[in-house]
UniProtKB/TrEMBL annotation:
GO biological process terms on file: G protein-coupled receptor signaling pathway; response to pheromone
Keywords of this entry: Membrane, Transmembrane, Transmembrane helix
Name of the protein: GPR180/TMEM145 transmembrane domain-containing protein
Entry annotated with the keyword Metal-binding: no
Xref: InterPro entries: GPR180/TMEM145, GPR180/TMEM145_TM
Native species: Paramecium sonneborni
Residue ranges of domain GPR180/TMEM145 transmembrane in the record: 175-392
Transmembrane segments: 168-190, 202-224, 244-264, 276-298, 310-328, 349-368, 374-396
Length: 420
């Protein structure tokens, strides 16, 4: 399952600035978004283009491509036009670039600046292929011939982060340090408990693994952003690993919450019907991973995040369904005594926050300016995950935790020191 997700994420890096088209693809596409960037000041751009493996018949021939630049409001206005080619009328800036077809695959380069408005500028670069200047000339049966275009945006000071990504590096840095410290702290508690009683608390171990994965994915994301801040590309391998770990991390936390809703480690420890529950759990995980992967494949450069379209709604539906399921089974638990009642009340509160955080963030992101939706859905989700880690740690490892007093393992060894 996660191998499939790895392939999909690798092929669909979230912030692509380079796109490659075959002649057949160019014939079918007319107005093609390439890249997007937001800034509060002047935006610099660099266009790099070349023809890969041109036929010998076209050696040294010049081809013209057109790039149309749209400010956010202009692009929204242009999208109302039924005829794609007429959208050029709403473009804020139009540039043409000459590409020479040669055996050494020469790279054509053009630089410039964009400025518009007084507050924020969100720019979109679009390849205008209405004239089909390349694919109309080069035969379609040349399967190896491709057009490669890179549109590179950066701020006046050389900053690579777009307006909607502003502050993400600081946030990820803080979260990385915080989660690593949290993991070390919780691991020290787990190690001391293991040394003292000689037995593992598997629920505690489960929580520790989740916290460790969160720290690891933040670390990989941090390293990716360090490089991204330098070259505008980052390290796709680190970004991909980070996203896969995040999917696994969310999945494990989801499974842990469902297990506790069933009463695991409180009312029973050995699960029955594993042959039913394990395939069902993997089916849910596969469905979520597949939805995210497909969402990346169909997402457009005009999207601020992959959850703008049907992907966000389907994932929200999955989380809401699991929230209802979790709430129902938590209410079915035997709550004899204040300690058990308090534990399940906190579990219900933390669990509902976990399942409903994403749908709520998605809803709020639809109410604000499009470029702000990234901050709400992506950064909001980061903080929601960290808050979940804190709450779950407090629930299971806090000094005043009710869990230690009511769990089966607690009855067998945590109170053993008091009895001796």
């Amino acid at each position: 399952m996660f191998i499939i997700l790895l392939i999909v994420l690798t092929l669909t890096e979230a912030k692509q600035i380079t796109q490659t088209f075959t002649m057949k693809q160019l014939q079918k596409q007319i107005y093609i978004p390439i890249n997007r960037f937001g800034s509060r000041g002047i935006v610099n751009y660099k266009i790099l283009a070349r023809i890969i493996k041109p036929p010998k018949d076209y050696e040294n021939r010049l081809f013209d491509i057109e790039i149309d630049f749209f400010q956010q409001d202009s692009w929204q206005l242009a999208q109302q036009r039924v005829d794609e080619c007429s959208r050029q009328q709403d473009a804020n800036k139009i540039v043409h670039q000459q590409i020479e077809a040669s055996s050494d695959q020469k790279m054509s380069m053009q630089e410039g600046q964009l400025t518009y408005g007084q507050h924020h500028n969100v720019w979109l670069a679009v390849l205008n292929n209405c004239q089909h200047t390349i694919d109309k000339v080069i035969r379609l049966n040349n399967k190896n011939t491709k057009l490669e275009i890179t549109v590179w945006f950066y701020d006046e000071g050389g900053k690579e982060f777009s307006l909607e990504e502003e502050g993400i590096f600081s946030v990820v840095t803080i979260l990385t340090v915080f989660t690593i410290i949290g993991f070390i702290y919780n691991y020290s508690i787990f190690k001391s408990e293991l040394k003292k009683y000689g037995e593992w608390d598997y629920a505690f171990l489960f929580v520790l693994i989740v916290i460790g994965l969160e720290a690891t994915q933040n670390l990989f994301n941090f390293m990716h952003l360090v490089v991204y801040n330098i070259n505008g590309k980052g390290m796709s391998a680190f970004s991909t690993i980070s996203e896969i770990i995040q999917v696994v991390d969310n999945y494990l936390l989801m499974v842990l919450l469902i297990l506790f809703a069933w009463g695991w480690s409180i009312e029973f420890f050995d699960m029955e019907d594993w042959d039913i529950y394990i395939p069902l759990a993997f089916l849910i995980a596969f469905a979520q991973a597949l939805i995210v992967g497909l969402g990346r494949l169909v997402s457009k450069q005009t999207d601020y995040h992959i959850y703008e379209s049907w992907v966000g709604y389907i994932i929200s539906l999955i989380y809401i369904s699991l929230a209802i399921y979790f709430y129902y089974y938590t209410n079915q638990r035997k709550k004899k005594g204040d300690q058990i009642e308090n534990f399940y009340f906190q579990l219900k509160l933390y669990g509902m926050f976990f399942f409903l955080a994403f749908p709520l963030l998605l809803f709020v992101s639809k109410l604000v300016d499009p470029y702000k939706s990234y901050t709400i859905i992506i950064m909001g989700n980061m903080f929601a995950r960290i808050l979940n880690m804190i709450l779950m740690s407090r629930l299971f490892t806090g000094k005043s935790s009710e869990y230690r007093k009511i769990c089966i393992k607690g009855k067998s060894f945590l109170d053993r020191g008091k009895l001796l």
